[in-house]
């Protein structure tokens, strides 16, 4: 039994010595690496002064093979250029989109200036949103306390005291344009029997001193109106429309 224990102790001792040797080798390699890194940082032109090093230095490639440093640098440079080109294309797309939105806003403002009455304003707004923003559905709801006007308007004017408007209370209080998903109650109120076909929604509050109403935009495409789009443009358009409506509603 004592011989077995002695043998195990010797084996453990040998393993400890082997582990220490491996650790020492790693520490020595780390120290060498740090020294080399320091030298390269202090001499950043070393490869310029000794270009022959480019041919002998190797960098392991993802495929498993080894390539010279200069080949690796060329590959990295190509990837960087491709990344920059992709980024430039994205920025150009954004610039074109912004230019298009600015033109839409300008045309809308000009058209609204020529509107003769509320019906003209509503017609211009609906045509603009369907043509320029690819909205499958667009609706305008204007608030009123005039029961006769509400009855005659065929859905344009709605009772400002309608309990169903509680679904829009928060966005009206904070003047927030909503882009993306809406509640079932909001969709049902704005789009009625067409609400089941709508997968994405934008809702623009119309406010000019007082709450004038709402604009609802709907699309069958779930990606057409989404939170990541931002709401600055829609909010600005809402302000234009609100100002135009306010001037005609006062007459």
Please characterize this protein's 3D structure.
This protein has 251 residues and is an alpha+beta fold. It folds into three domains: 2-44; 59-114; 116-249, Beta-Lactamase (2-Layer Sandwich). The chain is 59% helix and 16% strand. It is built from nine helices and seven strands; from the N terminus they run αααββααβαβαβαββα. The strands form two sheets. The protein has a five-stranded mixed β-sheet, with helices on both faces. The chain has a two-stranded antiparallel sheet with strand order 1-2. Strand 1 and strand 2 form a beta hairpin. Helix 4 runs antiparallel to helix 5 and helix 4 (69-113) packs parallel to helix 9. The chain is elongated, with a radius of gyration of 35 Å. The model has no long low-confidence stretch (mean pLDDT 81).
Task: Lay out the secondary structure.
Elements: H1 2-42, H2 46-49, H3 52-56, E1 58-60, E2 66-68, H4 69-113, H5 118-132, E3 137-144, H6 147-152, E4 157-159, H7 169-174, E5 178-180, H8 184-191, E6 200-208, E7 210-219, H9 232-249
Parallel strand pairs: 3-4
Antiparallel strand pairs: 1-2, 3-7, 5-6, 6-7
Helix pairs in contact: 4-5, 4-9
